[in-house]
Amino acid sequence: MTELPYIPPRYPSDPVSHELLVLFLDAVARVTEAFREFRDEIVAAYRAEKTHPTRQWDAWWRRWKFDGFKDYELKCQISSHLVRVMHIWSADPSEAAKLDVSCGSRTYVPAVGPPERHTAPTTMTWEPWDYQVESWDAYEAHWLAAFKAILKKQKAPFEVRLRRGLKPYNRRIRTRSNALHDFEWLAPSICKGWTDERIARAYHLPKKLGTDVVKKARYALRQHGFSTHGK
Question: What pTM was computed for the model?
Answer without folding.
Answer: 0.65
